[in-house]
From TrEMBL:
Belongs to the FAD-dependent urate hydroxylase family. The keyword Oxidoreductase applies. It is an enzyme of class 1 (oxidoreductase). The lineage of its organism: Bacteria, Bacillati, Actinomycetota, Actinomycetes, Mycobacteriales. It catalyses: urate + NADH + O2 + H(+) = 5-hydroxyisourate + NAD(+) + H2O. One of its GO terms (biological process) is urate catabolic process. This is FAD-dependent urate hydroxylase. One of its GO terms (molecular function) is FAD binding. Keywords: FAD, Flavoprotein, Monooxygenase, Oxidoreductase, Purine metabolism. Residues 2-338 form the FAD-binding domain.
Length: 389
C-alpha cells in the first residue's frame, strides 16, 4: 500500500505520520520550498493534543505548549475584569490540558517527526486524478506520480477538493479580519499563564501564552473584505480601531512588531459530505474550512489523520473501503465544528448587536461553568475524545 499526501501542513504531516505508524508507505509533496507557516500560533485544544500524543509527540508538545491556568474576559473599554476562572475543571473533564503553540514550532515538530528529508519540497501539484488501478498526481515541474491513494491535504484553496467535488467552490467571507503575532508576556497586558480576552463593540483582543515567555496575540476587527493593507502598518491601523480601549490593549499595540504582524481575512466554507472520489480523498482545511472562532480547524485536521489511520487499519487491503470509512467517520463531526465556529463568530463580531450585548452581560455573570461547557462540547466527539468521555 502506497499513499501520497499533498501538502505538508499540520493535516498532511499528521496523516503521513499516522499512516506510517501502521506500516503504510507514504510520500509527502509540498509546494513551498521552506517551513514558513502563515500565522503566529495556534491553540491546540485537548482533542488536538491527544492526537499529537497518539502520534508519539507528547513530550515535544508539552515543551512547545504555553501553560494556560486561567481564562478571563475583560471589558475592552474600562479594563475591568468581567470574569476570571480556572481551566482545571475543563482539563479534568476532557483528560488533557490544551496547549497554545507557535505555528512555526508546531510545524517544525511535525516535519522533524516525519523526517525533513522525506518531504518533497517545491512540488506544486497541478492535477490529480484516479483510475481503477491507481491515483495520479501531476506537478508543475512535469513530474507525475502514482499511488494506491492520494490524500489532498492541500489547504483551504485545495485543488484536490475541486476534483473530489467535480466543481470549484467559493469560500464565504466571515466578516472580520484577524491581526496576529507574538510578543513577550507582560503583566500589563494580562497574566503570564492566562488566556485573556478584551471584548467590546463586536471587537476582540486576546493574548495567550506559548513557550519561552511569549504571548500569542490577536485582534479581531469587523472590516470589509479586500481593503488595502501595507505590511508594517499594523500599529497605526490597530491604534485607529482601538483608540479608546483599555491600557492593556495600548501596551500590546505598543509592544507588537508591526512587520511581523499578520493580517488575515477570515473565510469559511459550508460543510459538505463528499470527501472521497475513487482513490482520492481530502483532509484538513481542504475538507472543512472553518473560521478560527473556536480554535478547532487544525485540531480537526489532526483528528482526520487519526481517523484515516483507523480506516486503513480496518481495511488494509481495500483502498476504496478505507477511504469511505474515513469519510463516514469524519464528515458529521468536522461539519459540526465548522457550524459551531460560525455561530460563535457571529456573536463575537456583533452580527446581531443585541445578541452580542447579551453575551457581554452573560460574561459579567459568568463563573466559568458555561464557557468551559461550551469548550468541552467542541473538544468531545473526536476519535480520541469520545463524547461519552
Ligand atoms: C487566524 C487563524 C487562526 C487559527 N487558529 C487556530 C487555532 O487556534 N486552533 C486550530 O486548531 N486551528 C486554528 N486555525 C486553523 C488552522 O490553521 C488550519 O485548520 C490548519 O492549518 C489546517 O491544516 P491543513 O494541513 O489542512 O492546511 P494548511 O496548514 O493550509 O496546509 C496546506 C499545505 O498544503 C500546501 N499546498 C497547497 N496547495 C498545494 C499544491 N497544489 N501542491 C502542493 N502543496 C500544496 C500548502 O503550501 C500548505 O503547506 C486558525 C486559522 C487562522 C486563519
Amino acid at each position: 500500500m502506497k499513499v501520497a499526501i499533498i501538502g505538508a501542513g499540520m493535516g498532511g504531516l499528521s496523516a503521513a505520520i499516522a499512516l506510517r505508524q501502521i506500516g503504510i508507505e507514504t510520500a509527502v509533496y509540498e509546494r513551498v520550498t521552506e517551513n514558513k507557516p502563515v500565522g503566529a500560533a495556534i491553540s491546540v485544544w485537548s482533542n488536538g493534543v491527544k492526537c499529537l500524543n497518539y502520534l508519539g509527540l507528547r513530550e515535544e508538545t508539552e515543551q512547545l505548549g504555553g501553560l494556560v491556568e486561567t481564562m478571563s474576559y475583560v471589558d475592552g473599554h474600562t479594563g475591568a475584569t468581567m470574569c476570571r476562572f480556572s481551566m482545571q475543571p475543563l482539563i479534568d473533564e476532557v483528560g488533557q490540558r490544551p496547549y497554545p503553540i507557535a505555528r512555526a514550532e508546531l510545524q517544525l515538530m511535525l516535519m522533524q517527526a516525519y523526517g525533513m528529508d522525506d518531504i518533497r519540497f517545491g512540488m506544486t501539484m497541478v492535477e490529480v486524478g484516479d483510475s481503477p488501478d491507481a491515483a495520479t498526481a501531476t506537478f508543475a515541474d512535469g513530474t507525475t506520480i502514482h499511488a494506491d491513494a492520494i490524500i489532498g491535504a492541500d489547504g483551504a484553496g485545495s485543488i484536490t477538493r475541486e476534483y473530489v467535488l467535480g466543481t470549484p467552490v467559493t469560500r464565504r467571507y466571515a466578516g472580520y479580519v484577524n491581526y496576529n503575532g507574538l510578543v513577550a508576556t507582560d503583566e500589563a497586558i494580562g497574566p503570564a499563564t492566562e488566556w485573556t480576552t478584551y471584548v467590546g463593540d463586536g471587537k476582540r483582543v486576546s493574548v495567550m501564552p506559548v513557550s519561552d515567555g511569549r504571548f500569542y496575540f490577536f485582534f479581531d476587527v469587523v472590516e470589509e473584505q479586500g481593503l488595502p493593507y501595507r505590511r508594517g502598518s499594523a500599529r497605526e491601523v490597530l491604534r485607529g480601531h482601538f483608540a479608546d480601549w483599555a491600557p492593556g490593549v495600548q501596551t500590546l499595540i505598543d509592544a507588537l512588531d508591526p512587520q511581523a504582524t499578520n493580517r488575515v481575512e477570515i473565510l469559511d466554507l459550508d460543510p459538505f459530505d463528499t470527501w472521497v472520489k475513487g482513490r482520492v480523498a481530502v483532509l484538513g482545511d481542504a475538507a472543512h474550512n472553518t473560521t478560527p472562532d473556536i480554535g478547532q480547524g487544525g485540531c480537526s485536521a489532526m483528528e482526520d489523520a487519526i481517523a484515516l489511520q483507523w480506516a486503513f487499519k480496518d481495511h488494509p487491503d481495500d483502498v476504496h473501503a478505507a477511504l469511505i470509512a474515513y469519510q463516514e467517520a469524519r464528515t458529521e463531526r468536522a461539519g459540526e465544528l465548522v457550524l459551531r465556529a460560525r455561530k460563535r463568530c457571529d456573536v463575537t463580531h456583533a452580527k446581531d448587536p443585541e445578541l452580542t450585548a447579551q453575551w457581554y452581560e452573560e460574561l459579567r455573570n459568568e463563573d466559568g461553568t458555561n464557557i468551559l461547557r461550551g469548550i468541552a462540547g467542541n473538544i468531545l466527539g473526536g476519535p480520541l475524545t469520545p463524547a461519552t468521555n
